[in-house]
Amino acid sequence: MAKLQVAIDLLTTEDALALAAKVAPYVDIIELGTPLIKNMGVSVIRAMKDAHPDKIVFADLKTADAGELEADLAFKAGADLVTVMGAAGNATIAGAVKAAKAHGKGVVVDTIGYPDRVQRAREVIELGAEFVELHAGLDEQWTPGYSIQVLINETEKVGVPVSVAGGVNISNIAAVVKAGAQVVVAGAAIYGAADQAAAAQALRAAIDAAKN
Question: Which distant-in-sequence residues (6+ apart) come within 8 Å of 142 by Cβ?
Fold first, then answer.
């Protein structure tokens, strides 16, 4: 069964905890977005893990260098998963994986901005990544002509464990799941909704239905 990940792209610990409390019954993974961690520091990771010890807490560090050091900081603060940029050197990814093994945690490689997401996904799995995020960032999503179908097509052919992030919503989540994504990442589809709990519940139901 595919997991549902909520991407919390808010800017304060208070707001992040409030959103997580609403959607926790329906999500498997709580992602602390890069701007949130930059604004609040790693203390937001500890706050979220203390509030939701039964959930996978995902620290979207987007590490580009010093992989072992940065991953270690996040794991010590309570993160279960951290991200390293796919564009980072293999040594950086390997360093983060080393830290993950020391803590019994995992590394996700984020392919945002990488020209060949599929090829890089296949490479970094060999370095020990837990899974790879096929990711079209906000700036790419706002580019005229963007379609999540690109990520769906990549998921179908990549052949390694992946998550998909880049405009997932209630109208396309079934297609993402059926393409083979192990984790489906929803951001604005949840935090931008008038009723955030209901939005998360509907996405969860769509995931469940897509597998039946």
Answer: none
Measured in residues, the chain has a length of 212
- Tokens standing for 35? 């701007």
Alpha helices (H) along 105-192: 117-125, 138-141, 149-158, 173-179, 188-191
In whole angstroms, what is the distance from residue 16 CA to residue 115 CA? 32
In DSSP terms, which residues pair with 134 in a beta bridge? 164
Q: Is the sign of the CA dihedral 156, 158, 159, 162 positive or negative? A: negative
CA angle 85, 87, 89 (to 5 degrees): 95
Global confidence as pTM = 0.98
Q: What is the DSSP letter of 26?
A: G
Write out pLDDT tens, residues 88-136: 999 999 999 999 999 999 999 999 999 999 999 999 999 999 999 999 9
